[in-house]
Amino acid sequence: MRQHYNVPMGKGMALVLVCFLAVLAALMFLQPSSQESALDALSAVEKVVDQVKGPDAPTKLDLARQMLTDLKVPKASRPEKDKAIAAINDAKADLGTDQAKLMAATGEIKAQIARAKANLKVLTATERARGIKDQILALVWPLFLALLIIYVTNSSSCLRLFTQLGSVISNVKVPGGLEIAFAGATVKNTQEEVLRGYRQQAIAQYDAAVSQFQISETVSRIIDARIKPFFEKACLEPDFRCTVHVRDILFKDSLYQLIDYLPGKWGSGNHGRAWSFRYGIIGRCWRLEKSDAKGEIPQDKTELIDQWGMSKVEAEKGSKQSVLCNLIRGRNQSPVAILFLDAQPPHAFGDEAKMSELIGVVDSAVKEFGLDTALDKVWEQVRSSAPLIEIYAERK
Q: What is the rounded average pLDDT of the residues 116-143?
């Protein structure tokens, strides 16, 4: 079992802050400052100037000038550095002419270097604090993120806020090269919420049309006036249920359960579901554009997978029910809906002759009670707002 350990928010923040201050102090006292590095470099130049004697004098002067030219010093020490470089140029001009002038020039060089070193020594304490600016900036973002994580993990409101931000922000870049990406579950959850919203809108539009054209009431009248009398005459007492499937306006090539199962004893809330029209007997009926009935669902798994569009898991579950699908056509003779009946046990609707007769009774009742016309109007009303998202695109 996975265990979760929660650090109290106050103690966690205090611990992170103490660690940050400890690292900062170590940087301040252990990290060499830029001024200390400059002092060392100037001392090295002094040693080179001390070696300006004899035949090696030109080489040593060039070396000293190059070292000063490459040396970066604070603004306060730059005049002395420039004067030292000028003195080196004068010393080179005096080489081989007047040894006394050469010595005076090298003395000027050393004097300017000494002044530059003095200025650096005065500024060292102040500049040391400035020298750790980059280290502080490098630590600020990790510290901020650590504190933020501790706070967020202890705040449900912040978790909701970041979830909302993640739905509209793909990534954020901050100074120092750090990039924060919002992806994965947040995006996935947002997409699912969008689809659920679309489905609820589709259900609402269908429900409004069902109410306007009295679809449930018409199906109830067909059940009471035609289907039940048929079963009584045939000496059958199936505990059947009945519903209507229509074309889905949200997903292309899908069928939508338009009304709850009737009679009312089957309860409410089971409409609004959708299936691919490649699935089951309703899919076969829709694709073949003809009514069909089965006294028993085939138990052969291969047949269910091959002809009924079921997955292996669905086929293994099996079913022992009687089913009937009556295809309902619209004004242009295109399929507009399926009136679906099922019941248990097998052969609840009688033999094949009785089922064929029942299909004829249902088909006549659909036309007699105007259910086909009403369903045609339902489709005309809702299809204008259909997104018809295409999940399975045809290969071009």
A: 59
Q: CB of 37 within 8 A of CB of 124?
A: no
**H helix or E strand, kind and range, residue 322:** strand 322-329
pLDDT at 150 over 50: yes
Q: What is the pLDDT of residues 310-341, one digit of tens each?
A: 777 877 776 668 999 999 998 888 999 999 99
CA distance 110 to 88: 10
Class of domain 213-385: alpha beta
Band (390; pLDDT cuts 50, 70, 90):
low
- What are the residues whose beta carbons fall under 8 Å from the beta carbon of 273, sequence distance 6 or more? 256, 257
Residue 251 contacts by C-beta under 8 Å, 6 or more apart in sequence? Answer: 274, 388, 389, 391
Return the SS3 of 339: strand
- Ordered DSSP codes for 72-92: ---GGGHHHHHHHHHHHHHHH
Q: How many CA atoms lie within 13 A of 297 on its CB side?
A: 23
- Are the C-beta atoms of residues 116 and 85 closer than 8 Å to each other? no
Closest CA to 221 of 257, 250, 263: 263
**DSSP states of 87-153 as a string?**
HHHHHHHHTTT-HHHHHHHHHHHHHHHHHHHHHHHHHHHHHHHHHTHHHHHHHHHHHHHHHHHHHHH
The pLDDT tens digits for 224-275 are 999 999 999 999 999 999 999 999 988 888 999 999 999 877 777 789 999 8
Q: Quickly tell me which residue has 């009670």 as its tokens.
A: 369
The residue ranges of every structural domain in the chain are 32-131, 213-385
Name the phi and psi angles at 238, rounded to 5: -75, 140
CA distance 155 to 66: 60
Query: What per-residue string of b and e applies to 314-332 under the rule 16 or more CB within 10 Å gives b?
Result: bbeeebeebbbbbbbbbee
Q: Which H or E element spans position 158?
A: helix 156-168
So what's the architecture of 32-131 in CATH? Up-down Bundle (1.20)
pLDDT averaged over every residue in the chain: 75
Contact 215, 260 (CB under 8 A): no
Q: Which of 68-77, 96-105, 328-337 has the highest mean pLDDT?
A: 328-337
Dist. CA 357–CA 335, nearest whole Å = 21
Rounded Cα distance between 81 and 114, Å, is: 10
